[in-house]
Amino acid sequence: GVRHDLDIEFLHDYRVAIRRTRVLLKEAGSMLTAPHFRRFRDDFAWLGTMTSPVRDLDVHLQEYPHYVAWAGEQSAEALAPLRSLLREQRGMARRDLLAALASPRYRNLKSAWRRLLDNDDDGGWLESGGNRPVAELAPELIDVRRRKVIKRGGRLDADSPDEDFHALRKQCKRLRYLMECFGSQFEREAIRPQIRALKRLQDNLGEYQDLCVHIGE
User: Fold this and answer.
1) CB–CB of 53/148 below 8 Å?
2) 28-56 pLDDT per residue, tens
3) Tens of pLDDT, residues 124-159
4) Which of 75, 77, 158, 209 could form a disulfide with 71 if both were Cys (CB 3.0 to 4.6 A apart)?
5) How far does Cα 59 stand from its chain's mean position?
6) CA–CA separation, 210 vs 104, rounded Å?
7) Count of CA atoms in the C-beta half-sphere (13 A) of 83
8) DSSP letters of 76-129?
9) Pairs from 21-30 (Cβ < 8 Å, separation ≥ 24)
10) Its pTM surpasses 0.90
């Protein structure tokens, strides 16, 4: 879907999968040897970076009609060159993304990650890693993230810089991904409302961040 540009949601879902992987990798980093952890941390960060420009431009183009409506129909003709520029920039960013997906680095990342997950890489996992039950570990990991979200959110006010709101958004994403990943360890009636509330907060922060990016560009 991403390669053939069938729908912008394919790239969005792909980016979510990358972010979830990075969060879980960070939490499980103590179970991996240092070289393996650094390699996958850096490679998945690179992959996430390569997907960002296309996604940002997708959002710009998706919201463009709303911006024109806000500006007034009399501004539509004056803003037309902006839309053409966004499409041109998206085309260039997409070429870079396709080149990354066809690169040896990406192919090696996929094969090495699969070997690790299938336990075919004997040198990746530490013998001492993974000894604690998930039911015991998951609440601790989630609570650590929850405290970070509350602490960071409590520092914000009307004069806080845009970067601080974006940092809170990233913390919310990490918390949500952990809750979704380990959701089976909790009663559905208890965990689902928390995830929905967190998603609403994320959506609000996400819309704010998108507008900040639009203004900056």
Assistant:
1) no
2) 777 888 999 999 999 999 999 999 999 99
3) 888 765 667 788 888 888 999 999 999 999 999 999
4) 75
5) 14
6) 32
7) 14
8) HHHHHHHHHHHHHHHHHHHHHHHHHHTSHHHHHHHHHHHHHHTT--TTTB-TTT
9) 22/48, 23/173, 23/174, 23/177, 23/178, 24/177, 24/178, 24/181, 27/141, 27/178, 28/129, 30/126, 30/129
10) no
